[in-house]
Amino acid sequence: MKRDDHHLVVQEKTLNKQGDGVSWIRGPLLGRGTYGRVHKATLRRIDKHVSFPFEMAVKSAEISVSGTLSVEKEIMNNLKGCPYIIQCFGDETTMGYDGDLAYNILLEYASGGSLSERIKKSSGGKGLSEREVKAYTRSILRGLKHIHDMGYVHCDLKPSNILLVKNDIVGEFRAKIGDFGLAKKRESSLSYPRGTTMYLSPEAVIDGVQEGPSDVWALGCTVLEMLTGQRPWKGEEDLIRTSIMSENELPPEINSKEISEDARDFVMRCLERKVTRRWTVESLLRHTFLDDLGNDDVREPDHSESTIVIGDSEDEFDCDRLLLDDSFSSWSSSGNAFGRADTLCHFL
Questions:
Q1: With pLDDT > 70 as the criterion, what percentage of the chain qualifies?
Q2: SS3 1
Q3: Residues 4, 47, 98, 156: which is the catalytic one?
Q4: pTM of the predicted structure, to 2 decimals
Q5: H or E stretch at 25
């Protein structure tokens, strides 16, 4: 096996199919995080008996540290079918010829990249149009409703975990919730708050409690970031925690003159400090901010091979756009559908 500073050459073979019947080839790296890496993946061959799309994303981790990824797969199975949540098509364990094992889950591919990337690239630091924000917001709310109805809390809702998936029929993009690596069952106890400090609710920071209202708080921070192009809180992590715990402090961008009164009121309903006063997902879906909206899809995004940040705090690392150049982008295979593949990829 050859290694250099940027690439690990791995010859993979399928160790077991676990009933999924999918033969795929690992492509360019899309993102990385604490719990694994995401690559673009393509089917080795198109088979009329295979219902999965030709392009997918594969999220992988070394088998020895794949427990979180395995739990994520089970959660996504339980959430399957909602059009506002990234779909999981199955899982496989693969083995390099050096004996290293990797656990992989096959996911819906988001060609529009993440909402975080959309905000950074398209708003110029001034925020997205309210029409676009409304469409994404309603999609996220509908995804959250399904998550909560099924008895889960996401615990890490933020722009980098909202992915933009293209509707090939009309050429528009829909926001879908992804990355369930930190999700938990409702009313299950936590020893410490999960997620990214920037989007944590007061009850999570102060009491370590994360339930459905905590996801609503994170949604408010996310909507504010879409509207303004700016992070909801400023400063280092300790200062952010202090601001979140303060009874009288709200994100400074909430006072931006560029935000309409309806939008401001929507965000304020999400950022009610008292959980009992914070609006529910169902109430927010009926807010006047979303009244004049047509469908949930947006034509704007056009990012190819976009970076996706997974399973970690954006404050702790910077995930740059990483693409393999042409010399690393051709894949070879031999044998049957589950035969040998020469694959270029990054492993943890």
A1: 75
A2: coil
A3: 156
A4: 0.79
A5: strand 24-33
